[in-house]
């Protein structure tokens, strides 16, 4: 992964270096940028994010917003236990609109907490033919919103009106149903799992399977959930695109391959990483101490229009 040095105003630097950055992204799927003060001032980071990933998405309900960003485009990473590894995923690929690019910026590093990335074209090449067959029909993501665990549908859809939430599901191309008391909204969204990487034409496993499948849960968390719910009642789950289960063996295979192929760039203050989200997945290692990262996503594309093998 190439390391570059930002030595001027972000938008000016990007204009002068955009061709070289694009080539690094085409070759590696990610690029590292260091610059004095780059991430300490949220406005400076926002200008780099807008140049690298714009137009930026706003008000992402999956992330916490940064209070001193008036644009609503800069967030903090998804809240997750600092003692466990957050597994590899391509951001927001359960939704209809996928970010082509995302950017992370480091304000404080803590101890650990690296953001490993994995080239999902290389992961796909390593998959067994049986795993490829399982994923060929795509993935159906199942979400239960309004349980004691996970997000509430009011937060996700930014409304208290059930009818407005239903209309949002329809715009996403999701099916939906309410429980008999009307408090829990269950949605199902069928998305591609394998696309042709627009930069190289190679098949890429671009998905969030390891965030949704029960097999990928930490054993302690899985066992705690099982005390309360049956697996089909977990806050999140996923199946093949045709509705059949994704075997646990496919999940084990994915974890093993991603673990073997991941690349880890150490964080330091004022370091940013631009990622091609259609090609590279990212994870997060456990950490201690204070870890403060910024994140932005942008250049959204309708996944229905992406080429597939």
Automatic annotation (TrEMBL):
Signal peptide: none annotated. Pfam families: TauD (PF02668). Its cofactor is Fe(2+). Keywords: Antibiotic biosynthesis, Dioxygenase, Iron, Oxidoreductase. Residues 18-295 form the TauD/TfdA-like domain. GO terms for molecular function: dioxygenase activity. It comes from the Bacteria. This is TauD/TfdA family dioxygenase. It comes from Sphaerisporangium aureirubrum.
């Amino acid at each position: 992964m190439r390391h570059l040095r930002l030595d001027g105003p972000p938008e000016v630097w990007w204009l002068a270096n955009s061709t070289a950055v694009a080539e690094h992204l085409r070759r590696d799927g990610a690029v590292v940028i260091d610059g004095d003060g780059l991430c300490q001032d949220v406005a400076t980071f926002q200008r780099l994010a807008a140049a690298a990933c714009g137009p930026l998405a706003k008000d992402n309900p999956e992330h916490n917003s940064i209070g001193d960003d008036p644009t609503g485009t800069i967030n903090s990473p998804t809240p997750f236990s600092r003692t466990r590894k957050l597994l590899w995923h391509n951001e927001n690929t359960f939704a209809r609109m996928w970010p082509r690019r995302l950017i992370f910026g480091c304000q404080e590093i803590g101890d650990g907490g690296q953001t490993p990335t994995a080239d999902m074209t290389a992961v796909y090449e390593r998959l067994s033919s049986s795993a490829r067959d399982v994923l060929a029909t795509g993935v159906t993501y199942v979400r239960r919103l309004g349980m004691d665990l996970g997000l509430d549908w009011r937060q996700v859809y930014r409304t208290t009106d059930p009818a407005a939430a239903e209309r949002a599901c329809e715009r996403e191309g999701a099916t939906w149903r309410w429980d008999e008391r009307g408090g829990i909204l269950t949605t199902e969204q069928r998305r591609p799992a394998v696309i042709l990487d627009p930069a190289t034409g190679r098949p890429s496993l671009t998905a969030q399977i390891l965030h949704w499948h029960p097999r990928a849960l930490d054993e302690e968390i899985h066992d705690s959930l099982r005390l309360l719910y049956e697996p089909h009642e977990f806050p999140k789950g996923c199946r093949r695109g045709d509705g059949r289960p994704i075997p646990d063996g496919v999940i084990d295979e994915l974890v093993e391959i991603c673990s073997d192929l991941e690349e880890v760039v150490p964080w330091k203050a004022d370091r940013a990483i631009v990622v091609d989200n259609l090609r590279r997945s990212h994870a997060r290692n456990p950490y201690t101490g204070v870890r403060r990262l910024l994140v932005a996503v942008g250049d959204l594309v309708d996944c229905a229009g992406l080429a597939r093998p």
